[in-house]
Amino acid sequence: MPENILILGGTAEAAKLARLAHEKLAGRARIVVSLAGRTRATAASPVETRTGGFGGAAGLADYLRAEGIALVVDATHPFAARISANARVACAETNVPRLQLVRPPWTMPKLARVTWAADLGEAAMLLPDMSRAAFLAVGGRGMAAFETIDTVRLVARAVEMPGEKPAHIEVILGRPPFAVEAERELLERLKVDAIVARASGGASGLAKIEAARDLKLSILLVRRPDPEPGECVASVEDALAWIESRI
Ligand code: NAP
C-alpha cells in the first residue's frame, strides 16, 4: 500500500516538491497537496490537491487521522505562520513526522539601503519618513496595513486583484518568479523612491531587492517569523530525500 504524504503548499517550492515526489515515488507514495484556496488561478498539476482550511490544529489532526497520513511536509510560505503552528501541534498530537521546507534567508546585496521592521504595522509607521512614492511587495492582504498613509504615493503588486483595497493604493498584477532586469524596469517606470517587502527568502524574491539596490532606492523589509521548532530543510531536493528515507 502506498504511504499517504501531505504537502502543505501554496508556494512554488511545494508545487515542485509535489510534482517530483509524485513522479519519483509513484506506487510507493500517494501525494496530496493542500492549498488554502486564497487565489483562483493555479497552474495545472498532475498531483492530487485538496483546497481550504482544516479548521485549526484540531481539524488538521482529524484530517491526518481520517486520511491515514504518514508524513507531513510543511512547504508553506515563510509568512504563513498560523498553518505552520497548526501543523506542529497536529503532527505532535497524531505522532505524524513533520518536516518544514524553509527557503534560505536572503543575504542582502552589497550597498543595499535596508531598514528593518518587525511587522507590516511598523513598516507602515516608518514609511512616510523615508519615501514620497513606494512600491509595496507585501502580498494582496498585506497592503491593508498601509491604508492610513496619505503622504506617500503607493503602488502595490498582487497575484490577483484584491476584492477590497484601500482606494489610494494603485494595484498592479504579477505572479512570481520575477527577474532582476524586469524588476528594475518596473521600479523605474513606477518612479518610486522606496520598496517595501517581506524578507521571505529564496532566490526569486531577491530580484526586487537587487533591482532596488541597483537603483539606489530605500528598502524597507519586514523580518520573517522564525520557523516552528522541528526538522527543517532548505531545498526541495532535501525534502524529497527526507520523504524517500521514510517510506
Ligand atoms: P496562515 O495565516 O498561516 O493561515 C491561515 C489559515 O489558512 C490557516 O489557519 C488554515 O486554516 C488556512 N491555511 C493556510 N495554509 C493552508 C494550506 N496550505 N492548506 C490548507 N489550509 C491552509 O496562512 P496565509 O498567510 O493566509 O497563507 C495562506 C496560504 O497561501 C499558505 O498556504 C501559504 O503557503 C500561501 N502563501 C502565503 C503567502 C503569504 O504571504 N502569507 C505568500 C504566498 C503564498 P485552518 O485553520 O482552517 O486550517
Rg for CA atoms = 19 Å
Based on secondary structure, the structural category is alpha/beta
Instruction: Count the DSSP helices.
Output: 7
Record field, number of beta strands? 12
Helix content bin: 25-40%
Bound molecules: NADP nicotinamide-adenine-dinucleotide phosphate
Series of H and E elements: EHEEHEHEEHEEEHEHEEH
- Name the poorly predicted regions: none
Proportion of residues in β-strands = 15-25%
Strand order of the largest sheet: 3-2-1-4-5-12
Question: Top keywords for this entry?
Answer:
247 residues, alpha/beta, 7 helices, 12 strands, 24% strand, elongated, binds NADP nicotinamide-adenine-dinucleotide phosphate
How are the SSEs ordered, and which strands pair?
Layout: E1 3-8, H1 12-24, E2 29-35, E3 48-51, H2 56-67, E4 69-74, H3 81-94, E5 98-101, E6 113-117, H4 120-126, E7 133-137, E8 153-158, E9 169-173, H5 180-190, E10 194-198, H6 206-214, E11 218-222, E12 232-233, H7 236-244
Parallel strand pairs: 1-2, 1-4, 2-3, 4-5, 5-12, 6-11, 7-8, 7-10, 8-9, 10-11
Bound molecules: NADP nicotinamide-adenine-dinucleotide phosphate.
Residues 8-11, 34-36, 38, 53-56, 59-60, 76-77, 79-83, 86, 139 line the site of NADP nicotinamide-adenine-dinucleotide phosphate (NAP).
What does this structure look like?
The chain has helices at about 10-25, 55-65, 80-95, 120-125, 180-190, 205-215, 235-245, and strands spanning about 5-10, 30-35, 50, 70-75, 100, 115, 135, 155-160, 170-175, 195-200, 220, 230-235. It has about 250 residues and is an alpha/beta fold. Helices cover about 30% and strands about 25% of the residues. It is elongated and about 60 Å long. NADP nicotinamide-adenine-dinucleotide phosphate binds near residues 9, 56 and 79.
